[in-house]
Each structure stands twice: as structure tokens, then as C-alpha cells.
Amino acid sequence: MASKNEPPPVPVAASGARVAILMGSDSDLPIMQKCLDTLHDFGVPADVHVMSAHRSPQAVAQYASRAEEQGLEVLICAAGGAAHLAGVVAAHSALPVLGVPMPSKHLSGMDSLFSTVQMPGGVPVATFAIGEAGAVNAALFAVQVLARKEPALRAKLAAHKHRLACGVREKDAALQGQPSGKTPGNAR
Known about the structure:
The protein has about 190 residues and is an alpha/beta fold. Helix content is about 45%, strand content about 10%. The chain is built from six helices and five strands, in the order E-H-E-H-E-H-E-H-E-H-H. Strand 3, helix 3 and strand 4 form a beta-alpha-beta unit. Helix 1 packs parallel to helix 5 (about 130-145). The radius of gyration is 20 Å and the shape is globular.
């Protein structure tokens, strides 16, 4: 254990993890749990840590620069407010970096979105929607990256998309089954 005067050791990726989920604060976990759950649904092992671009920048830089040699293939970063975590990670890694802006108290996450998406040329961060939709889509995008080399993951993605399409068809069928006078957009 580190003494009061020295920083804690830099986290090491969990054995077998292929995707890292890095959060600027533990308060991001309820939203990023959706990301972790989605990865789990596809059988993709993930490594999860709290680290801050502002409060623990050396740890972020060291983790990101060692990520590939530890077997990680995609890095997902969630942060709110100034939200520099994804950019700092992208500066220190050649792996794909996915940014998930977190909702914020004062600007509803717009500050997080702009901080994550407005990267200078040469330091790419693929940025997703603010909050839960972004967390789920970042996980799905990570699965798509991994599935390029794995037929089993591609099949799981195809089944996922099929379930989405079936759900829409079921909702439309239920809507169409309403009495014709109450069906929106079906004026006759």
C-alpha cells in the first residue's frame, strides 16, 4: 500500500480483459454499468478503473501507454465536466479510444460532450452520446471492433440487430392493430 506521500500504484489490466472502461469518477459507474453489462452480454471481458486526467494524470498516461502490451484492444473513457480523460488516453495510446460524455450538474452534459468531441487533428476520440445511450453504444462499437476478426462475435452482433428489428416490428404491429381511427399517421 502506498504511503500518504506517494501515489498508489498504476492499475494493471485484469487478466484476459480486452476492453478497458476508465471513468473520471466513481459517480460515473451507474451509467457506465450499462456499458459493462453490454460487454458482458457479448462475452467480452472488461477491466474497469476510476482515474482522472486532472487528479491522477501520471496514472492515466502510464495505464494508456501500457494498455496494448497488457492485451487490451479498445479503451472506453467516461468523464463529465471538463472531460479530458479520453483525450489524455488517446494521446498515450494507439488503441481505439471511445469517449462517453457524462451528464453534468450545470450544463446537462454539453460541456462533457464538447470536451470529448473537440479533439485536435491527430488525436482521435470516437465520441458517443451523453449518458446511458452513449455507454451502451460505446460497448457495441467496441464489440464491432473486436468482431472484425471473430466470426462468433459477428454472429452475436447479427443476432442483436435481428432482435432490435423484431422489437420494432412488434411495436408497429401492435400500433397497427389499434382501431383505425386511433392509429396515428393512418388517416383514410
